[in-house]
Amino acid sequence: MAEEEKTVLLTQAAYDKLKQELAWREGEYRDEITQRIATARAEGDLSENGGYQAAREEQGKNEGRVNELIVKLRNAKILKAPQAGVVGNGSVVTLELAGRERVYAVGVRDIAVATDYEVISPESPIGAAIMGAKKGQTVSYTAPTGREISVTVKDAQPLQ
């Protein structure tokens, strides 16, 4: 049974980068792999041809990623920029956690292609706790270990 396709929330920059990756994988990279397969095939016996086997494996990985990108882009919804000072999908947040300040982007891991920030999923324990929190607010969440952890939102800005 086919897995239900979910909406993928992306920033415009992440959407554009994934689209560029798809174009590269469907064009230049696919052609490069096809050429490597043809070159290896011309060498003769394919059963003991490591170059051929590696190129075929790479072809399979590429086609899998192409299919994944097609589905993501088809189901993509561009995030509306969240309000400054409030944590939402597409926010860059500065958190004080265990006495240290850390900066994260909030959203699905696919937005990481367009940013240098580590990404917190809004569905993770910490992500769910900070969603909707305002600058200066302290919230707590239960870590997977069962420990209660407090986190303070120092800042929240829309991801650029």
Alpha carbon gyration radius: 21 Å
Individual helix count: 4
What's the architecture of the largest domain, going by CATH?
Orthogonal Bundle
Total DSSP E strands? 7
Please tell me about this protein's structure.
The protein is an alpha/beta fold and 160 residues long. The protein has 2 domains: 8-78, Helix Hairpins (Orthogonal Bundle), CATH 1.10.287.180; 91-158, Transcription elongation factor, GreA/GreB, C-terminal domain (Chitinase A, domain 3, Roll). It has 4 helices and 7 strands, in the order E-H-H-H-E-E-E-E-H-E-E. It has helices at 12-26, 28-42, 50-74, 125-130, and strands spanning 8-10, 76-78, 91-97, 100-106, 118-120, 138-142, 148-158. The strands form 2 sheets. A 5-stranded mixed beta sheet has the order 5-4-3-7-6. A two-stranded parallel sheet has the order 1-2. A hairpin with a 2-residue loop joins strand 3 and strand 4. The longest helix is centred in the middle third of the chain and has 25 residues, at 50-74. It is elongated and about 65 Å long. 21% of the residues are buried. One of its GO terms (molecular function) is RNA polymerase binding. Residues 83-156 form the Transcription elongation factor GreA/GreB C-terminal domain. It holds the Pfam family GreA_GreB. InterPro entries: GreA/GreB_C_sf (IPR036953), TF_GreA/GreB_CS (IPR018151), Tscrpt_elong_fac_GreA/B (IPR028624), Tscrpt_elong_fac_GreA/B_C (IPR001437), Tscrpt_elong_fac_GreA/B_fam (IPR023459), Tscrpt_elong_fac_GreA/B_N (IPR022691), Tscrpt_elong_fac_GreA/B_N_sf (IPR036805). This is Transcription elongation factor GreA.
